[in-house]
Each structure stands twice: as structure tokens, then as C-alpha cells.
Design goal:
globular; four-stranded antiparallel beta sheet; eight-stranded mixed beta sheet; homodimer; alpha+beta
């Protein structure tokens, strides 16, 4: 039984990685190079030797350094559900001409910046390894100026985007609002009466979208009875032990959430808000969340790969963090955010969607959450808004995932990564100033 | 523990469905219409009500009528591995002009034939429901003349192809032979020395390809110690109980197979031959099987969807029957077989590949296996060769899957289905004469 729960917990660590800090081992002597899955030999050979295998049973597939293989291969280990790209021809991204591309890549590699809290300059090129980067894409004025793959990722692979999944839900909710199908000032129960007796019952859709709900959701990993473990066990798609009495599936868990204070006062980054929002999207559209994402975004933007979600035992995709996608398709998502809903000359959704996200959330409410590397920022519609001089905003996921949109520099930057620790505050010091350096460079072009 | 094995067995029934006769319930009062998953409501609603759910835990997802949902949704329930189509534009299939298409569909629907062992005529249209057909595609001279979806399948969905998976392995092996990279007269141990002490040690590659090896592989479902259950448990990707002592993964099982008589004397349809052949393909190409299939076939033929495989805990795709794919992509495979390796004017593999398959296997060896509905036929390179007047040959999978190639009528026919019983001999009487009727009709065009 104990063994089962070990497996269940680690599995949950995968589907709930925003929360698995306690499970990750420190980097120690691990560098980006010596932890590269190609060098580690994970799953190489037919069959791979037992010590080269990464399995569900071993329970450590999301521990570093195995993490660096797993982020590209979640479907090999767990049930997943497809976000179809449809059947048509993908719309290729535009690239700067070949000779310019080589130049721009070399010039960006050579850019230097000063990491936060440091007085030592670092090159862009060095920052890639420092941040255990698996994929990096930079678009300027709609054209690719930089593209780089490493570790487990190739241009034909898919990478876990972790909590960037949340931003897809925020986008869909904003689209429904712009189309007049969803009212963000309405209480959640207008859409989900089944949540009447929960903390969400008297929250507004907007409070859920901006994570200013006041909900009991304890993420103390040292306490085996903490809510996070109950949520993890609920979402685990594998068969539960006979003695299991808890909720089955994410949505079943949401029915149990209790209120803790007054909604709308403070930002609190709690994944369960996203799963409520995805449920609302499902209810309004009459589609399961992954189908809505396919219909409303993935098929329309010319995606070149289908994406996928991890899924619970009730067939609910994990909207809080379970999506995997290709690097360039995330670049397409970024272009839609930069260009206010237009890609390849085609409007995919109303400009209002991005206007709403970009304006940011309640900055006073955000201060209380104490994000040192994001001082002065805010959170709106499942996006992080920097409120910096360039008006940048971002989707962010643990272990270093980002889609960073800089409207002033007309830049979209996508990074996929497998940093040893699930703490973006450790990665931001060598990331945010680096992104600004690229933005400054592109503004001279 | 008992409970675990129940789950393990049923799960294995999924990945080894060629063998799950004993598990399937009879059709009883079930018709194609009342068992249609859309009418049953499986997995509808967010979340679906408990009695509308199909789960791993319940252990019955491959029982009829749930089977009819599961065949289109295996990845939602189990770990799977992608056969990438690549990133380019798919090559659309050619269709007869729109007005002709409506006519040809109506004409084919109205065709009549006499089922084997019957004196009652049946229409083609009626045969679709009789055989619990989920998808039907007919191509004539390279153009689609008939296309039909029902049950769980849509043109954007993927369906379990069961033992038709084997035929992909046979094709790849024939390609390697034609390219001079694989010698089918050589002993298996030339490629897989690790099999030296097994039944396969002194078999030739050809004997494996044509399933004329003499191997101990007991498929008696009533005996819980039968080999089939050991193989099933080995291939089950879910964590094994602590007390489990058996092989882990399909390939680990293959190391234990003992000989039973002399190779080359009789045809014996035993799935383990295919997994040996896929292992040989992996060894020769230096790729995992699903990667080789992607590189050698799926990317080259203009596939419009990636396909996927169920996978064991060692990351080995189940080559014996674990693939799911789209209807039209199977049509592309059929066109390559009809046109000796050419599709859309492009040669994908040498003509020799199809010449070898089409000539058929040892008909005397085949007789001994006693396939009543395939009298006079043979088995070669994981294909069924009918040796009928039209020279037809086919990939076949349990529950009614087929790619049927008729070179004389220049016809390719693909059927995906979810028949209540895993016994193609029950489906052939209303299928093979129906296919011949369509071929006869097309030859008049």
C-alpha cells in the first residue's frame, strides 16, 4: 500500500509539477551537458539496459536528471489525450533569410547581460546552458531570428509546458468573454452550479481567472495529509488502491474546496483555479477542454503538431499543467499574443483578448504574494504581466518554461527547459535580463 | 493482489487483443446502432457520470460494448508512443469528382452479395452494420470512391488496427531485404545473438516472417499459467506487484521462448514472431521500431496524422498488435501495396517488397492451421494472401480490421471495426464476398 502511494505521489508529481519542489533533487555536480539525456543514455538500446530505463514503476521519472528525458516523453509513461491540429497543411513560420539567420543567431549568442544580483556579465549563449535550456525560439516582427534545440528536444518533439498550460485556459476564457459567451463579472455558480457549496461558489469568474480567490489549498509537502497530495491522488490516472476513499479526478476534488477569507484581496498562485476555469470553458463551449483548445486555437493557428494533455481517470485533461507541445507551435501562440489575435494575416480571435491580458491584474494583490524576481508585476487571465518599460507579459511554467511577449520590441521568445529545481525564481536572474538584452538588440534592427 | 492481476490481465487484453477471445462477451441483443458509443454516452459530459466512464481501474475497457469506444481512444487509457508523420504538409488523397463520388457511393451501397454459408443476399450497406464497421474507405485506381465513418471514428480520429500492426513490420522487413540490409535466409541469431538459447535461435528470418517457427506458446485462456498470460503480464506497462517475478517487457519474454518441433513445417499464427521481427528491424536500422516505421514509411507516404503504439515498461512498442492510425493513412499504406511502392508519383520503397508479399507463403504449411474462411490461402511477411482469382492479399486484425488489396480490380479497401467477438472467421462470411462484389463492380468502370 505504502508502495502504491509512493508511485501515486510521484506520478502526481508529474501531473502536478508546479508542486513537486519537495521531490526534486538539487543539481549538485550536474551541468546541462553531463545531464543531457543523450549523454545519460536514457532509453537508448533495444531494449534499453535496466539502468538506462525510465519507468512509472521506479517512481522517479520526474527527479533530476531523469526529468530531462521525461519532459519530452510524458506520453510514453502515462495516459494522454490529443489536442488535434486537424488534417490540413501546417502554416510554416516565416524565417529571416538564410544568410541573415546565421548572422542574427551569432549576434544574439554574443549578447551580454548582467544577471540579477550579480556583477558578472554573462553571454546569451552561456545562459542557455545555465538554465538547462532544451529549446529556444526568438521571433522578431513575425519572423524567426533564432532557433535552438538541445537535450531531449528536437523540432519534431513535444515538451511539457507545465504551468504555461494555464495560459491556454486564460486565452480561451478571454476569447469567450470577447465573443460575449462568458461574463467574467458573473459568479462561478452561474456556469457551474455544482460548485455552489465550495469556496468557488461565491467567487467571480474574474477572480478565478486572476487567482484572487481565497481558497484552502495547502501545499505543505512535508504533510502527507496536505491538500496537494489529495489533489495529486485524485488526478492520478492509474488504478487506485482498494482502500482509497478520496475524490476521483480533478473535478471531483474541486467539489471539496473550502473558502479561506475574502475573495479578491490577494493573489494566490493556486492551480485549482485553472481547473475550475477550464471546467467553465468546457461548460460554455459544450466541449471537453482539450477539444475546445483544438477548435478555438490549435486548428486555427496553423499548428504543425498536435499537442497533448495528461488526463485523469475521468478523462479530464489536467488544465493546470498537463500539456505538451512543440516549440514552434508555442511560437505561433506567442505571435497571436503579440499581434492581438492575428497570425499569417488571419484573425483567430478578437484583439480584445490580448488587450485584456496585457493590461495586467491587481498589482496590490500581487505584491502580497512576494515574488522577488517579478517585483511590480501582476497576474491576469493566467498570464504574468511584468509592467516593465516594454510592456512585456508571459506564460510561465516550472523548470523554466516561458512564452515571453515584448510588444515594444515586437519580440516573441519561447523557452523550454528542464532546470534541476522547480523554482523559476532561481532561473529568472539569468533569464529576464537576458530577454531584455535580446529585446534591446532587436530594437536596433 | 488478485485485483491487481485482474487489472493486469484486462490491460494486457488491450495490448494483446489477438488473444482476448475469452474475455469478450457475446453480442446478445447488441446491434451496431444500439452499441454505438455515441448512443451509449461513454465519456460524455464534463465530467462524465460515473456509469458513463471507461477506466483502466474497472478492467473492462476492452469488453463489448465499451470496446466500441476504446478502439478509438487507447491513448486516453494507456502509455503510448508516437509514430511521427513529420512536420510537412500531408499529401491529400485523390478523390473521384464530387458528382461521381455521390454516385459511386450510392452504387456501392446498393451492391448485393451472398454471404458464405448463406442463401440470403445481403447489400453492401447492410454489411457495414452487420460487421460493426467504424470506418470504410475504398480506393479505385488511386482515387477514393467510397468513404464512411461511424461509431467512435471520425476522419480526424485514430483507430486500433490490432494485428494489422504486424503487416507494418512485415513491410519494413521486406524493405530492408530489398535494400540488401537484411538476409531472410540467415538465422535470427545473426541479428539477435541474445536469442541464441531460445526457439528462435535456429530459426531463419524468413520462418519468423512467415510464422512457420515451431515455438511453445500456449494460448489456453482457461489456464492462468498459460504463456499468453505471462506474455501479457510482461508487456503490461503499469507497475507490477512486488511479488512479480516474470519477464519485464515483451523482449524480456522472448528470451524465454522454447522450441516445439521443427521450424518451417507448419504455419502457426503466434504474435511473438512479430515482436522478434520488429526487434530485428530495430537492430538492423539502429532505431526503435516506431522510429523506423516513421522514417521508412509514415513520413514518406504523406501521412496526414501521426500514428501511435501501446508500449511496455521498457519502452518497446507492441509490434504484434499495438498500433492506432487514421483511416486514410491506412489507405495510403494500401496504395503503396497496390502500386508496388509508389504513391503520388513518388517511390517510397522498391517494387520487390510487394512482389515478395504478393507471391504468398507456403500453402501446404497454411492448410494445417485450418482457417476455413481463408481456404487455399497462405501467410507471408505478416500478410494474408488469398490466392483468389484476383490475386488479393490483406493485412488483417481482430475485431474486423483489414487493408484489402486487389491488384486485378486496382482496388484498395480499408475497414476499421469493433465487432463484438475477436474472431475474424465470424466476420469473413459477410466481408470477403462483399469485397469481391465491390471489386467486380469497379472492374466494370
Amino acid at each position: 500500500m505504502r508502495n502504491y502511494f509512493t508511485i501515486a505521489f510521484f506520478c502526481s508529481a508529474l501531473v502536478l509539477c508546479a508542486y513537486c519542489m519537495a521531490l526534486a533533487e538539487g543539481p549538485g555536480e550536474w551541468t546541462a551537458e553531463n545531464s543531457d539525456p543523450r549523454n545519460m543514455g536514457w532509453m537508448q538500446g533495444v531494449p534499453p539496459s535496466p539502468d538506462a530505463r525510465i519507468t512509472i514503476a521506479a517512481g522517479d521519472f520526474f527527479n533530476f536528471p531523469k526529468l530531462r528525458w521525461t519532459v519530452c516523453n510524458i506520453r510514453d509513461l502515462l495516459p494522454t489525450i490529443e489536442v488535434s491540429r486537424g488534417l490540413g497543411a501546417p502554416v510554416p513560420l516565416d524565417y529571416v533569410p538564410h544568410h541573415e539567420f546565421a548572422d542574427s543567431r551569432a549576434e544574439i549568442d554574443a549578447l551580454t547581460f548582467t544577471p540579477m544580483g550579480s556583477d558578472q556579465e554573462m553571454t546569451w549563449k552561456a545562459s542557455l546552458a545555465t538554465n538547462y535550456t532544451d529549446g529556444m525560439l526568438v521571433l522578431h516582427k513575425g519572423r524567426v531570428v533564432y532557433e535552438w534545440y538541445s537535450g531531449c528536444l528536437t523540432e519534431q518533439g513535444k515538451h511539457a509546458i507545465m504551468s504555461m498550460t494555464k495560459s491556454t485556459v486564460g486565452m480561451l476564457a478571454e476569447i469567450l468573454i470577447a465573443e460575449g459567451r462568458l461574463d467574467d463579472t458573473a459568479p462561478v455558480i452561474d456556469y457551474l452550479p455544482e460548485l455552489a457549496k465550495t469556496a468557488f461558489g461565491n467567487a467571480t469568474v474574474r477572480q478565478v481567472m486572476d487567482m484572487t480567490t481565497a481558497v484552502v489549498f495547502d501545499e505543505n509537502y512535508d504533510d502527507p495529509k496536505a491538500d496537494i497530495w489529495i489533489y495529486s491522488a485524485a488526478g492520478n490516472p492509474l488504478p487506485k488502491p482498494k482502500s482509497y476513499q478520496g475524490p476521483v479526478g480533478y473535478l471531483d476534488y474541486l467539489l471539496t474546496v473550502k473558502q479561506d477569507g475574502k475573495h479578491g484581496k490577494a493573489f494566490g498562485y493556486k492551480t485549482i483555479n485553472t481547473d475550475v476555469l477550464a471546467w467553465i470553458v468546457a461548460r460554455v463551449t459544450g466541449m471537453r477542454y482539450h477539444e475546445a483548445l483544438s477548435e478555438m486555437l490549435w486548428r486555427r493557428m496553423g499548428a504543425e503538431q498536435s499537442a497533448y494533455f495528461s488526463v485523469d481517470a475521468a478523462g479530464t485533461p489536467f488544465a493546470g499543467g498537463g500539456m505538451s507541445a512543440g516549440l514552434r507551435d508555442l511560437g505561433r501562440m506567442g505571435l497571436l499574443l503579440l499581434n492581438e489575435g492575428v497570425i499569417n494575416g488571419k484573425r483567430v480571435f478578437p484583439a480584445k483578448v490580448v488587450e485584456s491580458i496585457r493590461q495586467g491584474g491587481d498589482r496590490d494583490a500581487f505584491v502580497k504574494a512576494g515574488y522577488d524576481t517579478l517585483e511590480g508585476g501582476s497576474y491576469r487571465s493566467m498570464f504574468w504581466v511584468l509592467h516593465n518599460k516594454n510592456g512585456a507579459f508571459a506564460a510561465r511554467g516550472v523548470y523554466g518554461q516561458t512564452i515571453y511577449v515584448d510588444p515594444t520590441a515586437e519580440m516573441v521568445l519561447v523557452r523550454l527547459a528542464s532546470y534541476p529545481k522547480p523554482k523559476n525564481a532561481l532561473i529568472d536572474p539569468t533569464s529576464l535580463p537576458a530577454y531584455q538584452a535580446v529585446a534591446d538588440y532587436l530594437m536596433t534592427k
